[in-house]
Write a structure and sequence with these properties.
about 325 residues, 21 helices
Length: about 325
């Protein structure tokens, strides 16, 4: 009891890992969950923040050492009913993904009918998508939220639609989600988020011609380089030998600062490493080889290492003669 919540939960977790099902470990964690809010405010803990951390630490530890018996589930339901703190409620519901997924769905599905604001509607849809990765209702919810008056909610809904929707092609097709997202490109309210639209289309529309056409058209978006890069990255994932996307990503890697575009350059690197067509592999080597010099190795090591990584991929997918010839600077379009 003299230990802080993190130490108590950590020790209980270690005990449970060494001795699975250890009753003392489980009882310690359940005791941490049984601490109610009134006790926290009355000085059992130093502060309400410590109380919250105690609950969250105990839940995390229980997930790691237990499959969830009825006593654990009942205690978590008690926390869910008593807590007025939304992220504790959310954390309890997410724990049911392991302990009792059906219970989580039974809690969340009726909640849709009771929600009166977009913020909580997004919260419930996000949770349902996390505990039930095949819930079609989530797709409909995110599409509805794309019309929210709150800009942040709209953007989060678009991102979650891409993450969840990429695993539910039937639901995406049924809800006509791809045409819905494509139409956002014509909406002035989405002008600043065209790159996010490209990402979503790349995730949910990989098998749909209208999505591929929209991404291809975005390669010509000369006013928004971020959107062009995202479109190229996902076109390469859909078609690893998409020539225009390859050329755009090569230009991007050679001309942009790594500190400003680290995530995009990593995605571009991964996309280029999916290339299989011989002439494109030769072109990649010819373009990037000039960056493998002593100056870049010393002054721009990120560029050097990235180019080396991509060229290594090409060397593994070209014949020795092919690679040797292009390394000497021969025309990449020659066989």
């Amino acid at each position: 009891n003299d230990l802080d919540p993190f130490e108590r939960s950590d020790l209980a977790k270690e005990l449970g890992e060494v001795d699975p099902g250890n009753l003392r470990a489980l009882s310690t964690l359940l005791e941490m969950l049984n601490i109610n809010k009134e006790n926290a405010l009355c000085g059992v803990h130093d502060s309400i923040e410590t109380f919250e951390f105690s609950i969250l630490s105990a839940i995390t530890a229980l997930e790691e050492i237990s499959d969830g018996n009825q006593e654990i589930i009942n205690t978590l339901i008690d926390v869910l009913n008593k807590s007025e703190i939304s992220y504790i409620k959310d954390r309890v519901i997410l724990s049911f993904k392991k302990f009792n997924p059906f219970l989580a769905v039974c809690i969340l599905n009726p909640a849709f009918a009771k929600v009166e604001d977009d913020n909580n509607y997004l919260r419930i849809a996000r949770l349902l998508g996390m505990v039930d990765s095949h819930s079609w209702k989530v797709i409909g919810a995110f599409l509805k939220l794309l019309n929210s008056e709150n800009e942040d909610i709209k953007l989060e809904a678009l991102r979650h639609l891409g993450e969840v929707g990429q695993n539910m092609p039937e639901a995406i097709s049924c809800y006509k989600a791809v045409p819905h997202v494509i139409n956002l490109l014509e909406d002035d309210e989405w002008n600043y988020y065209r790159d996010e639209i490209a990402v979503c289309l790349g995730k949910i529309g990989a098998d749909q011609p209208n999505s591929i056409k929209a991404l291809t058209d975005l390669l010509e978006d000369n006013e928004d380089s971020k959107t062009r890069i995202k479109a190229a990255i996902y076109l390469k994932q859909i078609n690893p030998d998409h020539l225009k996307a390859t050329e755009l990503l090569l230009d991007f890697i050679c001309k942009h600062e790594f500190d400003d575009y680290e995530e995009d350059i990593q995605e571009a690197t991964d996309s280029l490493k999916q290339t299989r067509e011989v002439n494109q592999l030769r072109k990649i080597v010819l373009v990037l080889r000039k960056n493998l010099d002593i100056e870049n190795r010393t002054m721009n090591p990120d560029l050097y290492e990235t180019c080396f990584d991509i060229i290594w991929h090409c060397s593994q997918n070209l014949s020795f003669l092919n690679f040797s010839n292009v390394w000497k600077g021969e025309d990449a379009d020659k066989p």
